[in-house]
Amino acid sequence: MSRKFSISSFIIVMIVILGSTFFTLPFYVTKPGMAEELDPVVHVDGGYQSKGEFMLTTIRMGKANIYTYLIAKFSKYQELYPINQIRNENETDEEYNVRQLNMMEGSKESAIEVAYKKAGQTVTSHFNGIYVMHVSDKMPASGVLEPGDRIVKLNGRTFQSSKQFIDYLSKKQSGEEISISFERDKETKNKRIKLAPLPGQKGRMGIGIHLIDDKNITTDPKVTINSDKIGGPSAGLMFSLEIYDQLTEEDITKGRKIAGTGEILPDGTVGPIGGIDQKIVAADKSGADIFFAPNEKGKKDSNYRLAVKAAKDIETNMKIVPVDTFSEALEYLDKVKGK
């Protein structure tokens, strides 16, 4: 009887443990990912090869269950985020993934433009417009705009990127009314919408939409970037460096393994990203010699400062380099001694 009871209890406990792994909590867990070499990912027709490597860094993210939640609570380089800090209101996992992949596409386009222009190679872009990708419930645009609408004008102004659109709105005041023109089903519509504070973005105003730029890039020589399912804009800087390296005869890696992160804008500005301390861990594990980190013009809590703190904590020999622009990264590499 006692033996049967023990076996039954063990089975019940195992069923409970197994079942609880499928029960997710309203949190996401992020942890250090990998540093991936870009040479197999980026290909410029007839491009030059280098002895060293440029690497993009990633973080791993997934929904938390009770076990991953507890592990993250007591792990230094794992972070917990409430779902509303990751996904937009009423946004599904699939919609979130699509948004991240679209951001990656925009990042690749900017990286190509920046690298080709710097290398003096042919690159042309045709801007087709700004499209609405997601509309948040309970925000001013809800019931007015729909995914797929193409923004034509805002207060009579036209824009050449979603960033210009967002920057323009962010300078407005809560309750201020704007006029917006947009196309839907080949018909132009005009509406007036009042601005409201954006949830989780202190002091920023908006109407509750997420946008994507529709732009065609043509280059000579041709370039392809096979980023598969990597999402987000944070690989932009490293893509631009890898493309530039393949376009120019000089080996700018000088035999070194160079990792980094940062969004790249069409003017060559390097923007901040999230999870940089976890990316420092990933780059160190991959044996990187140098890590480029967004400097944010010396801001007190910049990506660079957080990266330096993490690098000291894990006692890495990797050199952490602050950059505000693509050109600054090239200038640093020009001074680096060969390995």
Indicate the topology.
Blueprint (H helix, E strand, L loop, with lengths): L1 H20 L2 E14 L4 E3 L8 E13 H8 L5 E4 H4 L6 H27 L2 E14 L14 E5 L7 H9 L6 E8 L2 E8 L1 E2 L7 E2 L2 E12 L2 E3 L10 H12 L9 E4 L2 E2 L5 E2 L4 H10 L4 E5 L8 H12 L4 E5 L2 H10 L4
Parallel strand pairs: 3-13, 13-16, 16-17
Antiparallel strand pairs: 1-3, 1-4, 2-12, 5-6, 5-11, 6-7, 7-8, 9-10, 14-15
Helix pairs in contact: 4-6, 7-8
EC number: 3.4.21.53
Protein name: endopeptidase La
Enzyme class: hydrolase
Write structural notes for this entry:
- It contains nine helices and 17 strands.
- The relative contact order is 0.16.
- The model has no long low-confidence stretch (mean pLDDT 88).
Report strand %.
25-35%
Task: Walk across the major sheet and give the strand order.
Answer: 4-1-3-13-16-17
End-to-end CA span: 71 Å
Q: What radius of gyration results from the CA coordinates?
A: 23 Å
- DSSP, total strands: 17
- How many structural domains in the coordinates? 2
Supply the helix-strand structural class.
alpha+beta
Query: According to CATH, what is the topology of the largest domain?
Result: Ribosomal Protein S5, domain 2
The gross shape turns out to be: globular
EC number: 3.4.21.53
Catalytic activity: Hydrolysis of proteins in presence of ATP
InterPro entries: Lon_proteolytic (IPR008269), Lon_Prtase (IPR027065), PDZ (IPR001478), PDZ_sf (IPR036034), Ribosomal_Su5_D2-typ_SF (IPR020568), Ribsml_uS5_D2-typ_fold_subgr (IPR014721)
Family: Belongs to the peptidase S16 family.
